[in-house]
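dumping this here so i dont lose it
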């Protein structure tokens, strides 16, 4: 099974036409807030006397504009910096919705990855996927004789939402980061110290973590999917073995609050829960391999109910395939936790 950019984009599209347009803020520490974004990746923002720093841009320009409006309910200070945790569109496609003078910070590989993984897919989505979707919906509407029927009204709602989303997607435009780094970048802003660290490939080849040193808070990007099954895309540089190592190392640090890429804001234990899921799944896969089962047999025998997770259940077979591949290619004697 192969997960593509389009699969992720379609998942965000589904969210975009069903989720409520209400963003609540969570004050995780003094002047440090989180938005559990229902339409994309979770956002953090830090308010200082010299301006605001934001982590992740949302999934579309309108999603980003709602993020900016939410920030404006807390402070009128200018948004100075926007940090991107990794390449995926639900964290980067909202760039056009942020102020034009914001300074964008990202790993040095993010721009290259965006052009390689995202650009052509977004173009195809604008020019083909969404227009075809709208055309199909219009044909269904035209074929229904009773324009007052429940079926007609339901499809019309879908059509109108899809038109709005299409207009939003047409506004997506990537912006070259102003500041890039390879391993570490430390930003000091009005007495605040923010450390950006490239921890090696895990969820993607460009994933970074953002540490708010004054607050013992970390934004992990999609290195943590809290209480849901994670998305793994081999072509984007996923490395589950290193991902586990990253989480285990972070768990040893002086961290109190974790803002995950998706799911609820949690405590430090959230890092361990994500690591334990991968370890548990790895051990299950190893046991089945020891019993002579092939990949498809293993996929059929490991079920979502085996884990205390809810959401993205369709990703479990992909998770199995990725870990099975790593176990086979890297050697099982080396894969020990």
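and the seq i came up w/
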């Amino acid at each position: 099974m192969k997960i593509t950019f389009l699969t992720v984009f379609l998942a965000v599209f589904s969210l975009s036409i069903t989720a409520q347009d209400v963003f609540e803020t969570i004050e995780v520490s003094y002047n440090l807030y989180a938005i559990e974004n229902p339409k994309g990746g979770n956002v953090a923002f830090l308010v200082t006397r010299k301006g605001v720093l934001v982590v992740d841009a949302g999934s579309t320009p309108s999603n980003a504009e709602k993020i900016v409006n939410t920030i404006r309910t807390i402070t009128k200070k200018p948004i100075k910096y926007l940090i991107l945790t990794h390449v995926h569109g639900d964290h980067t496609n909202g760039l056009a919705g942020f102020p034009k003078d914001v300074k964008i910070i990202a790993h040095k590989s993010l721009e290259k990855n965006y052009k390689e993984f995202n650009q052509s897919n977004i173009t195809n989505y604008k020019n083909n996927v969404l227009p075809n979707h709208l055309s199909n919906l219009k044909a269904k509407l035209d074929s229904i004789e009773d324009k007052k029927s429940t079926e007609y009204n339901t499809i019309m709602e879908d059509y109108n939402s899809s038109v709005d989303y299409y207009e939003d997607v047409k506004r997506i435009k990537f912006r070259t980061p102003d500041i890039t780094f390879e391993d570490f970048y430390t930003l000091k802003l009005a007495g605040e110290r923010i450390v950006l660290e490239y921890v090696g490939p895990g969820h993607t080849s460009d994933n970074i973590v953002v540490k708010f040193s004054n607050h013992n808070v970390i934004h992990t990007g999609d290195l943590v999917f809290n209480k849901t099954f994670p998305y793994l895309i081999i072509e984007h540089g996923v490395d589950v073995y290193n991902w586990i190592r990253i989480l285990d190392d972070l768990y040893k640090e002086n961290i109190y609050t974790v803002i995950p890429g998706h799911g609820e804001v949690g405590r430090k234990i959230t890092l361990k829960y994500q690591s334990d899921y991968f370890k548990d799944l790895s051990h299950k896969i190893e046991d089945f391999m020891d019993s002579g089962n092939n990949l498809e047999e293993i996929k059929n025998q490991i079920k979502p109910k085996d884990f205390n997770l809810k959401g993205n259940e369709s990703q479990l077979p992909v998770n199995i395939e990725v870990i099975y591949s790593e176990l086979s290619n890297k050697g099982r004697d080396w894969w020990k936790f």
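The radius of gyration is 21 Å.
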